[in-house]
Amino acid sequence: MLKLNHIHHIAIICSDYERSKHFYTEILGLEIMQEIYRAARDSYKLDLALNGQYVIELFSFPNPPVRPSRPEALGLRHLAFAVGNVEEAKAALEAAGVEVEPIRVDEHTGRRFTFFSDPDGLPLEFYEG
C-alpha cells in the first residue's frame, strides 16, 4: 500500500495578486517563505507557511478561467484552518473587514466552526480545536 507522509501544500490561483497576498499574509498571518516572479508566464508564485510549515502556493496568472467554488461545488470544497478560539478568530477577521458567517456547531464533534471567503470567493473555514 502507498504510504503518504503528509500534505505538502495547497495551490491557489488568485485574480488579484496584491489583494490576495495582503489577505493571506496581513489578515490571516501566513508567513512568506519565498516570492518569485516568472516573466515568461507573467506570473507570481508566493510560498506561504503557517507556524513554519509550508502550506500554500499562491499563484497569479493573466486571465485565469472562472471556476465555481461554493462549498457544495464539485472539486475542493473548502480549506480549513484550526484555531484555538473561533469567536476570537471571527472577530479578528471582521475587524479587518472580512465578512464571516455565523458560528455553527459540528453535530458530530461538538466543535465550533465558521466560514468566510478569500478575495476570490474561495471558501475558507476556521475550525475550533
UniProtKB/TrEMBL annotation:
Alphabetical list of Pfam families matching this protein: Glyoxalase
InterPro entries per UniProt: Fosfomycin_Res_Enzymes, Glyas_Bleomycin-R_OHBP_Dase, Glyas_Fos-R_dOase_dom, VOC_core, YwkD-like_dom
Ranges that cross the membrane: none
Protein origin, superkingdom: Bacteria
GO molecular function terms noted in the UniProt entry: metal ion binding
Annotated keywords: Metal-binding
Residues annotated as domain VOC: 6-129
Identification of the protein by name: Glyoxylase I family protein
